[in-house]
Amino acid sequence: MEALNAVLQQKIEVAPGLCIFRIAPLGWSLPDFRPGQYCPLGLPPSAPRVPYSEPPEKEGPADQLIKRPYSIASSSSQDSYLEFYIKMVPNGALTPRLFALKNGDRLWMREKVFGMFTLDDFPKDRNVIFFATGTGLSPYMSMLRSHLMADSGRKWAVVHGALNSWDLGYRDELVLMERFCSDFKYIPMISAPEKEPVPWHGHVGFLDLAWKMNYVDQAWGLKVTPENTVIFLCGHPMMVSGMEKLLIESGFTPHSKKTPGSVIKESFT
Question: Which of 261, 160, 247 is nearest to 212 (CA)?
């Protein structure tokens, strides 16, 4: 079994079942990475699970680490740790074990990063809209932290959907970004306002409504088109597939290395 080569430096609870993990390497240096990429994390099957988790659907071999890929949320200039925004899956194999970790506990982290869900393929004058549900926000935080203040000449928007306001991770940071950067707009949306202890005065509904109602056009004061904007999709698979269909109907095209387009999606967070 591979050695546990990293340490949990800090765990920040955002809401029940939602945490930010800052993980530092032990005895090796973090690789350079491009904002939007991901890194696998792992723990042995013998690692304890949180007591409120459910029995896992299946367990792997007892002599192999349980590994899963997670998008990096930290800036590409941060070289002492990698940050991850993770939702616990009660019957999952790995997340109940990750959530049982305490600061200072060891785990495994891959010494390489992967992924093509980046800004690399797009001109710097193309505006950018990030659509995310839940922890799909992770790669966008890395991109914003790395590029927002450095890339001038383009507009940015984050449209983040969650069940309730307390599930809107990084909300304070995104509000601060919007305050200090006139080219950035943050559009949070919730789908269960009736559960809010204090009345919610923001947008309500699912992310397709944000597109149909032209929320970003209104925030930017210009018409969003495939020629001036690239759109990123990350989060729940139903949101990703539904938004992709909607965008294609609006004239946007899927992006790939072989066939450049105006919509790029990530299938996990």
Answer: 247
Q: Report the DSSP pairing between strands 127-133 and 229-234.
A: parallel
| Model confidence at 100: pLDDT above 90 | yes
Domain finish residue from 49, 80, 109: 109
Q: Is the pLDDT of residue 58 over 90?
A: no
Joined together, the tokens standing for residue 101 give: 């970790």
Predicted TM-score (pTM) of the model is 0.95
Domain span holding position 171: 127-266
Which residue in this structure is represented by tokens 């945490």? 19
Instruction: Identify whether 199 is part of a domain.
Output: yes
Whether residues 133 and 234 fall in one domain: yes
Instruction: Count the domains in the chain.
Output: 2
- Say if residue 93 is in the same domain as residue 141: no
- What is the enclosing helix (H) or strand (E) of 217? helix 215-220
- Model confidence at 269: pLDDT above 70: no
Q: How far apart are CA 91 and CA 141, in angstroms?
A: 27
Q: Give the helix/strand (H/E) hosting 174.
A: helix 171-180
Report the CATH number that the domain containing residue 258 is assigned in CATH: 3.40.50.80
Contact 119, 35 (CB under 8 A): yes
Mean pLDDT taken over the chain: 95
Strands (E), the chain: 6-15, 18-25, 38-43, 66-71, 82-87, 106-109, 127-133, 156-162, 184-190, 203-204, 229-234, 263-266
Residues 43 and 71 both lie in one domain = yes
Looking at the fold, whether 63 and 170 belong to one and the same domain comes out as no
Find the helix packing angle between 171-180 and 138-147, rounded to 10°.
30
Q: Does residue 66 contact residue 45 with C-beta atoms inside 8 Å?
A: yes
Distance, CA of 263 to CA of 243 (rounded, Å): 10
